[in-house]
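To whoever is on call:

I kicked off a structure prediction for a single chain this morning and the downstream step that reads the tokens threw a length-mismatch warning. I double-checked the sequence; it's 664 residues and nothing unusual in it as far as I can see. Pasting both halves so you can look.
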Amino acid sequence: MNKRLMRQIGFQLLMLLGITIQQAIAQTRALTVDASESIAPIQPTMYGIFFEDINFAADGGLYAEMVKNRGFEFVDPMMGWQQPNSDRHSMNLESGFATAIKSKESPADQTYIQVLVNKPEGYELINEGFRGMGVESGAEYLLSFEGAKGEGEVSQVVFTLIDESGKAIGSTTVDLSGTDWKVYEASIKAKATSEKAKLKLTFKGAGIVNLDMVSLFPKDTWMGREKGLRKDLVQLLNDLDPGFLRFPGGCIVEGRTLARRYQWKKTVGPIEDREILVNRWNTEFAHRPTPDYFQSFGLGFFEYFQLAEDMGAAPMPILSCGMACQFNTAELVPMDQLDPYIQDALDLIEFANGDVSTYWGKLRSDMGHPEPFNMKYIGIGNEQWGPEYIKRFKVFEKAIKAKYPEIIIISGSGPFPDGEHFEYGMEQLSELNSEIVDEHYYRPPNWFRENADRYDSYDRNGPKIFAGEYAAQSVAIASPDNRNNWSCALSEAAFMTGLERNADVVVMTSYAPLMAHAEGWQWTPDLIWFNNLESYGTANYYVQKLFSNNRGTDLISITEEDSPLTGQSDLYASAVKDANTNELIIKVVNTSKSAQEIDLDFEGAKVASKAMSYTLRSDDPEAVNSFESPKGISPAAAEISLSKGRLRTSVPSEALVVYKVKIK
């Protein structure tokens, strides 16, 4: 090759390189963070938790009871119980047989079983648990039951944990005494681990024994509370650092019918006095019928308040407004019969905040919490719509404010983020000067990306907004094929920058639904998945955690050419200042399939030369976390350097990155 040709090639390469450098410079996004002015305070309630007993979230999930139908109060009293050596249908009593007896006077505890034992060596009574029982080797499990001897010589009950093959992996023997009902307690130490264990009862001696409230709990529960909550699940919730806990739902508040609505007064007091109710999600979806889904209310309103207190979250109960679910029966309480519903709301405030000299304050004290729970918020209705809701809300609001003017009342705009029902509700609630309006959105991923500027144009003098239920649907709303994939999680992150940028309007947000049993679910997607032994946070969970753990105290601006980043060239961003840690926190979402270079300039603050970044991303938009890979999509931390008070960095493709920069 001659020298002239080499020079020409070299010149062309330099020209190409120069163009590439110029393109790279041109593509660098110049962003400005203005730390000199607080636009609005970030409310402590900005990021919270929505809990509903769907997908076995309470019984079989958060509530650690392992025995299904412990009190024999299901519609079929023997549901969940098996008698493998007896022919139930032909009443073959050769070995023995258990019969449900309805004779107790309490509406909460009407049924017990009478066990006739003819051949002690041949009769077994087995509880299947909630899709099995999760048992860990070396762990201790606390057993309790109510028992009374009948005729004959049944002297002992042997309780044995058996694994999937029927092998015994732990047992205890309880001596029976007397014909009067009494509570018996014991413990079982597991010798092996099993995800689908069962509890087997056998008997010593022939005769009759009556049994009720057969219960088994892990000894190691959240906060060590006896008969408490499942530790790993609460830990996942607590790690979100939630600002509030909304409970008990959700459509479960409304009920398919008014008779099957959630009634908080039936969920407090002694466990055995809490009246069981069929769960409204048991047969809601043809694709996931769960006829064995009931509510024992072992996790009731007292336990919800206690859980909120444990996590430092504001309790946010939601109550029925006298309207059953409008997607089901849409039953209405006539306006002149609404008083009991209103009284329920007033009594709940007394239960949460009242002095121990009051009726409901004393009940709270008797349950072990003499101090008030300091409830500040109450929601009226879940996602009702139309004139009937507005009429009822007005009456509730008037009554509550007359007695408890300090309580903040949350109203609802219906189940959808747009359309006729939404527009009517928002118009009416704005005219009523409603304090906080709850909005719900279950939409495709693109909707979330396209609506990151949704609240930019909201009236700053209108109601505050609670984004109370939202989740990107990978297929379609209520589809059993929805997945917690990275595309959905990333889209939610983009949307959340818009929630945060409008913190002067949006004061509360929560993903929904919260959790799901791997074999007991009805609805997808969900934030947390669990089986009887394990649990994990989805990609969506880690998006929520990054925002919630980095909420800051003050909203500040981040702009590109004086405009907020709402998806221009697939870049979204929000920024806050944390006065407690003296940091600037910038959240950047890049939804494009290529990295984007940014040059962050900080105005109004001198920043340190080192910072931290937390990157959440995946190359595969369909990727999901799983039991096999519970942290496949989870944040990666790194230290980064600043130069002359500027942060020049590359935001990876399809990523959420949180930058934490110390102020000097």
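Update from on-call: the warning came from a stale cache, not from the record. Cleared it. Sanity check on the structure: The two ends are 58 Å apart (CA to CA).
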